[in-house]
Write a structure and sequence with these properties.
The structure holds 3 protein chains of 3 kinds.
Chain A (H helix, E strand, L loop, with lengths): L1 H36 L15 H8 L1 H35 L4 H9 L6 H15 L6 H24 L5 H8 L4 H30 L2 H7 L5 H10 L4 H33 L1
Helix pairs in contact in A: 1-11, 2-11, 3-4, 3-6, 3-8, 3-10, 5-6, 5-9, 6-8, 6-9, 7-8, 8-11
Chain B lengths: L2 H34 L2 E3 L2 E3 L5 H8 L1 H35 L4 H13 L2 H12 L4 H8 L12 H25 L4 H8 L4 H12 L1 H16 L3 H6 L7 H9 L5 H25 L14
Antiparallel strand pairs in B: 1-2
Chain C lengths: L12 E10 L2 E11 L4 E5 L6 H9 L6 E6 L2 E2 L11 E3 L11 H11 L4 H14 L15 H13 L6 E4 L7 H18 L3 E5 L2 H7 L2 E6 L2 E7 H6 L4 H6 L3 E9 L4 E4 L5 E3 L10 E8 L3 E5 L7 E11 L2 E8 L4 E7 L10 E6 L5 E4 L3
Parallel strand pairs in C: 3-8, 3-9, 6-7, 7-8
Antiparallel strand pairs in C: 1-2, 1-4, 4-5, 9-10, 11-12, 11-14, 12-13, 14-20, 15-19, 16-17, 16-19, 17-18
The chains are: A mainly alpha, B mainly alpha, C alpha+beta.
C-alpha cells in the first residue's frame, strides 16, 4: 500500500517535471525575443539594457504599416466569415444532421486535415492558373476562411454540444418569436463559444503565412513581410514585431480565459 | 416543425457551409489535380494533357528522397509529440485543479502566434548567434553544431510548432474522460498498469490519433521550418513544393507533388480511421435530437 | 364510445383527425379529442406511443400532416407556437439558467408585451400561489428539484394561458415529492379553471390527477373517458393491461354453457357476453391484482391452487407473490391484516366474474 502511494507520487512528480520542461521550451523563445527586442544588444541581451530603438524603427517603417493594415483587414473579414459559417455548420450538424450528422461533421473538419500549403497552392491553382484571376484580398480572405472554418466549427460544436436545444422551444412556447428566442436565450448561453471562435479565427488568419502568401501575389501582409525580411537575416525590428504580436495574442487568450471562467461560474453556482 | 420548414432549416444550416466548402475547398483540390496533368514552360501554362509531371516525380530520385525524408521527419515529430503530450495532458487534467483552464489556454499562445513569428523566436534561441550558443560561448564552451541548420534543428522547430496542438487534443480527450471508470476498474481488481492499458488508453485512443494526425499532416508538408532552419541536406518535400510554386515557376510539377502529398495524407487518414472501431473507443455519436 | 357528454356548444379545445407522419413512420393516426374548459385531461401511453408528438402538435412545436386544431373555435393549426397563447411545462423544466427566478417568471409576460403594472401583479401572484417567497432572486441552479418544478409551473401559468401543456413534469422528481406535486398541480388547475393537458407514461399519475384519461398506443387513441370508467371498464385488452396492475390468463369461451375455461388451470367461471363470437372462442382474461380473492385451500371451493412464495409489504397493502402449479407467478394485492399469510401457505385463488375483463384473443 505504502509502496504504491510513493510510486504514484513519483509518477505525478515526473509528469509535472515534463510539463514544466515543455512549457519552458514553448515560452523561452518568446520571452527571449521580448528581451532581445528591448535591448541594444539583441544577440545576448543579458543582463538587460533597455533600448526602444527597434520599436521606433518598426513604427516608422511604412512597409510594415501597410502589411499590418492588410493583415488586419484579412483577419477581421476572415474571423467574421468563418464564424458565421461555422455557426451555421454547428447548428446544422447538431440539430438537423440526423443520420448524416457524423458525415457532415467529418466534412466540416476536413480542411483541418489538409495542410495549409496544400490549401494555398490548390486555391492558387483554381484562381490564377485555371481562371487566370489576379491576386486580391477577397480570394485570400476566402481561402483563409476555409482553413479557419474548421477551427470555428470545432470550437463552437464543443460548446454548443452541451446546449439543450429545447431551451429555444421553451422560449417559444412562452411567446417569444424565434428571433427573440435566439437573442434572449440562445445567445446569452452560447456567446462564449462564438467569441472564442472569433478570436481564434482572427489570430490564426492574422499570423498565417502559407495561405495568404500564395493568394496575394505582391500585396504585403504582416507574416509575408516578416518572412521576406527573414531571408536577409534576423533584425531587431522583427523581434519587436514578433513581441507585439505575442502580446496581442496573449491579451486575446486572457480575454478567452475571463470569458470561460465567467461561463463556468454560471454553470457551477 | 413541418417537413417543408425542416427542409428549409437543413438547407440554411447544413447546405450553406457545405456549398462553401465544395466551391472553395473541394474545387481547388480538383483544380490542383487538373493542373498536375498540364505543363509549365517558361512561367506559362501549357494546357495539354500529359502525365509528364508524374513521370518526372517517379524517375527523379531527388523527389523520392525529399518525400522519404519528410515522412521520417513527420513520424519522428508526431510520435515524439504524442509521447510527450500524454504526461502533460494527464497532469493538467488530474492535478491541474483550478489552474486547469490557465494551463490549457497557455498552450494556445505559442500556437496562435503563427509559424513565421515562432520561427523567428526559435532562431533567436538556436541560431549561430542565438541564446543557447551565446550562453555556451560565454561559458567558454564550443557552440553546438547540431542545432544550427541541420535536420535536428528542423526536428526541434517542428516539435515546437505542433506540440501545443497535440497536447490540446489529448487534453480535451482526457478532459471528457470519466475518471470514475478508472476507479471502477480498480475496484474490479485491476492494477495501475492494467487500468491504463485496458481502460484509459483505449477510451482516449481516438483523441490521441486525432492529435497525432493534426501533427503528422502539417509536418509531412512542412515548408517554412526546414527552409529556414534546415541545413543543405535538409530539403523536405513541402519545401520543394513551395519552390515549384515560387521561384522556379514549375507550377504543374508542384501541383503533381501536391496531389501525391494529398493522396498520401488521405491514405494515412483512411488507414487510421478504418483501424479504429469507434464503439471500442467509447464513441457514442454526434448530435442530439 | 367512451366520450364524455359535451354540451351542445363547441368544445373549448378541439383536436380533429390529427395525423403526423415522419417519413415512413406514423407517429399519430387520425386522432380526435375534445377538451372542455375546466378539464384536466391526462394523455397516457407507453414510450413511443405518440403522446409527446400529440403535445408538440398542440403546442405548435410540430405541425400535423393532416387534421386541424381549434382553440376556442379558432383554427390554430397554422399558427406558430409563440402566437398560440399557451403555457408549457417540460420534463427537464428548461428554466433559463442565466436568468433569476423572477426573470424566468417575467419572461412570458414580457414576450406577450404586458404592461409593467400587470407584470408586477402577476409576479406577486405567482410568488404567493407557488410559495416561492425568498427564492425570487435566485438562479435556477441554486434551487432544489421541487422548487425548480414550481418555477417551471409558474412560468407556464403566469400569463393565464388558454391551456397548459405538461410533458411528464414529474418524471425527474423523487417519489415523495411527486405525490406532493400531484396534489398541488391538480389544485392549480381547479383554481385557474383552464384546461391542463398532462402527458405521462405513469398510469398512477394519470389516474390520481385527471378528470379524463386518453390512452394512446401506436399513434392511435385506444380509449378516452372518465378515469374511473377507464380503470373499471377497460374497453380494449391494451387498456386492461396498461391501466392498473393486472394479471392475464388465456382461456376459452364456451357459448353453450356460457362459461370461460382457463387453459392452464382447472378453473372456470360464468360469463355472459363475449362480443360477437360463436362457439368455442379463445379469450384473454384480465384480473386486477387487487381483485383476487384468496381462500385457504382446504375450503374446497373452486379456484386456482397456489402457494405463497413471497410477501411484499407496501404500507397499507400487502403484495403476495403466489406460485401456481403451472409455474406461473401471480401477484395478489390485499389490504394489510394484523398478521400477513406465512410463506408456503397453500391457497386457492379465485375472483368475482363481474370484476374481470374478458376479450376475444386477437393478435
Amino acid at each position: 500500500m505504502y509502496a504504491q502511494a510513493s510510486n504514484e507520487r513519483l509518477t505525478k512528480w515526473l509528469m509535472g517535471a515534463i510539463l514544466v520542461v515543455a512549457y519552458a521550451f514553448l515560452y523561452m523563445p518568446i520571452v527571449h525575443i521580448l528581451f532581445a527586442s528591448l535591448s541594444s544588444r539583441p544577440n545576448f541581451p543579458y543582463p538587460p539594457e533597455f533600448d526602444y530603438g527597434s520599436y521606433i524603427r518598426l513604427y516608422t517603417n511604412t512597409v510594415y504599416q501597410d502589411a499590418f493594415l492588410n493583415s488586419l483587414i484579412i483577419a477581421t473579414c476572415t474571423s467574421i466569415l468563418s464564424t458565421v459559417l461555422g455557426f451555421l455548420a454547428t447548428v446544422g450538424v447538431l440539430r438537423f444532421g440526423g443520420r448524416n450528422a457524423l458525415l457532415y461533421a467529418a466534412f466540416f473538419a476536413g480542411p483541418l486535415f489538409v495542410s495549409e500549403i496544400l490549401l494555398g497552392i490548390s486555391s492558387m491553382s483554381l484562381y490564377y492558373l485555371v481562371f487566370e484571376l489576379q491576386g486580391n484580398m477577397v480570394t485570400a480572405i476566402i481561402a483563409n476562411s476555409v482553413h479557419c472554418f474548421s477551427f470555428c466549427f470545432l470550437i463552437m460544436a464543443a460548446l454548443l454540444y452541451r446546449y439543450d436545444w429545447r431551451m429555444n422551444e421553451a422560449a417559444v412556447v412562452c411567446g417569444a418569436s424565434p428571433a427573440r428566442a435566439f437573442y434572449e436565450v440562445m445567445l446569452p448561453l452560447t456567446w462564449s463559444g462564438i467569441l472564442g471562435s472569433l478570436i481564434v479565427a482572427f489570430v490564426l488568419s492574422l499570423n498565417g503565412l502559407d495561405i495568404s502568401f500564395y493568394l496575394l501575389g505582391a500585396t504585403p501582409t504582416m507574416p509575408s513581410v516578416a518572412w521576406g525580411a527573414l531571408r536577409y537575416g534576423v533584425k531587431p525590428e522583427l523581434y519587436a514585431l514578433s513581441s507585439i504580436i505575442n502580446i496581442l495574442v496573449f491579451a486575446a487568450i486572457a480575454v478567452l480565459y475571463l470569458v470561460a471562467r465567467s461561463d463556468r461560474k454560471q454553470q457551477v453556482e | 416543425m413541418s417537413e417543408a420548414e425542416n427542409r428549409l432549416n437543413r438547407r440554411l444550416f447544413l447546405h450553406i457551409p457545405t456549398v462553401f466548402l465544395v466551391i472553395f475547398f473541394v474545387l481547388p483540390l480538383i483544380a490542383l489535380v487538373v493542373l498536375s496533368f498540364w505543363q509549365t514552360e517558361n512561367y506559362k501554362i501549357v494546357r495539354e494533357w500529359t502525365a509528364m509531371n508524374y513521370v518526372t516525380l517517379a524517375t527523379e530520385p531527388a523527389y523520392f528522397i525529399f518525400f522519404i525524408r519528410s515522412l521520417f521527419m513527420a513520424i519522428f515529430v508526431s510520435v515524439f509529440s504524442v509521447v510527450v503530450s500524454w504526461p502533460i495532458a494527464f497532469f493538467i487534467v488530474r492535478y491541474g485543479g483550478r489552474y486547469k483552464l490557465i494551463l490549457s489556454l497557455l498552450l494556445a499562445v505559442p500556437f496562435l502566434s503563427g509559424e513565421v513569428l515562432r520561427l523567428i523566436a526559435l532562431q533567436g534561441m538556436l541560431g549561430p548567434t542565438g541564446l543557447v550558443n551565446g550562453v555556451l560561448l560565454k561559458l567558454g564552451a564550443a557552440p553546438l553544431r547540431f542545432i544550427m541548420y541541420s535536420n535536428s534543428a528542423t526536428f526541434i522547430a517542428l516539435v515546437y510548432l505542433y506540440l501545443p496542438m497535440v497536447v490540446t487534443t489529448v487534453y480535451l480527450s482526457l478532459l471528457n474522460f470519466d475518471f470514475r471508470l478508472a476507479s471502477a476498474a480498480s475496484a474490479c481488481g485491476a492494477n495501475r498498469f492494467r487500468i491504463f492499458s485496458e481502460i484509459v488508453w483505449p477510451l482516449n485512443l481516438s483523441g490521441t490519433i486525432v492529435g497525432f494526425l493534426l501533427c503528422f499532416i502539417p509536418t509531412l508538408s512542412a515548408a517554412l521550418a526546414p527552409r529556414f532552419l534546415g541545413g543543405p541536406n535538409g530539403v523536405l518535400y513541402g519545401m520543394s513544393i513551395a519552390q515549384q510554386f515560387g521561384e522556379s515557376g514549375t507550377w504543374a510539377l508542384g501541383a503533381a507533388m501536391g496531389v501525391v502529398l494529398f493522396l498520401f495524407s488521405m491514405l494515412v487518414l483512411g488507414v487510421f480511421s478504418l483501424g479504429i472501431d469507434l464503439r471500442r473507443t467509447g464513441f457514442t455519436g454526434m448530435g442530439r435530437q | 364510445m367512451y366520450q364524455s357528454q359535451n354540451g351542445t356548444d363547441a368544445p373549448y379545445i378541439r383536436i380533429a383527425n390529427i395525423s403526423r407522419q415522419y417519413g415512413q413512420v406514423r407517429a399519430l393516426h387520425d386522432l380526435s379529442i375534445d377538451i372542455d374548459k375546466h378539464e384536466f385531461i391526462a394523455i397516457l401511453g407507453p414510450s413511443g406511443s405518440g403522446k409527446s408528438t400529440l403535445l408538440r402538435l398542440i403546442a405548435g412545436l410540430d405541425r400535423p400532416t393532416a387534421g386541424r386544431i381549434f382553440f376556442d373555435g379558432a383554427d390554430v393549426t397554422d399558427l406558430p407556437p409563440h402566437k398560440r397563447g399557451i403555457g408549457m411545462v417540460f420534463q427537464e423544466f428548461l428554466l433559463f439558467p442565466h436568468r433569476t427566478v423572477r426573470e424566468n417568471l417575467a419572461f412570458p409576460l414580457r414576450m406577450t408585451k404586458q404592461p409593467p403594472k400587470m407584470i408586477l401583479e402577476r409576479l406577486d401572484w405567482a410568488e404567493s400561489i407557488l410559495s416561492l417567497n425568498g427564492l425570487m432572486d435566485r438562479y435556477p441552479n441554486q434551487l432544489s428539484g421541487g422548487q425548480q418544478q414550481r418555477v417551471a409551473l409558474g412560468r407556464g401559468l403566469v400569463t393565464h394561458p388558454t391551456l397548459l401543456l405538461l410533458d411528464e413534469p414529474l418524471a425527474n422528481l423523487d417519489r415523495e415529492l411527486r405525490n406532493e406535486m400531484e396534489v398541488e398541480i391538480r389544485r392549480y388547475q381547479k383554481q385557474l379553471g383552464i384546461p391542463f393537458v398532462y402527458v405521462t407514461h405513469n398510469q398512477e399519475e394519470a389516474l390520481s390527477m385527471s378528470d379524463r384519461v386518453a390512452v394512446i398506443n401506436g399513434g392511435k387513441l385506444e380509449a378516452l373517458g372518465e378515469r374511473q370508467l377507464i380503470y373499471d371498464h377497460p374497453p380494449t385488452p391494451f387498456v386492461a393491461r396498461f391501466v392498473g396492475k393486472s394479471t392475464r390468463f388465456d382461456g376459452a369461451f364456451d357459448a353453450a354453457s356460457k362459461r370461460v375455461d382457463l387453459q392452464r388451470y382447472n378453473y372456470s367461471f360464468p360469463y355472459e357476453e363475449v362480443a360477437e363470437r360463436k362457439g368455442n372462442a379463445r379469450v384473454e382474461v384480465f384480473v386486477k391484482n387487487e381483485r383476487f380473492e384468496l381462500l385457504p385451500s382446504r375450503s374446497g371451493g373452486a379456484g386456482i391452487p397456489c402457494t405463497v412464495a413471497d410477501v411484499v409489504l407496501r404500507g397499507p397493502f400487502v403484495e403476495y407473490i403466489l406460485e401456481t402449479e403451472a409455474d406461473e407467478r401471480i401477484i395478489a394485492v390485499q389490504p394489510k391484516r394484523e398478521e400477513p399469510l406465512a410463506l408456503g401457505t397453500k391457497l386457492s385463488l379465485s375472483w368475482n366474474p363481474s370484476q374481470c375483463h374478458v376479450f376475444p384473443a386477437g393478435r
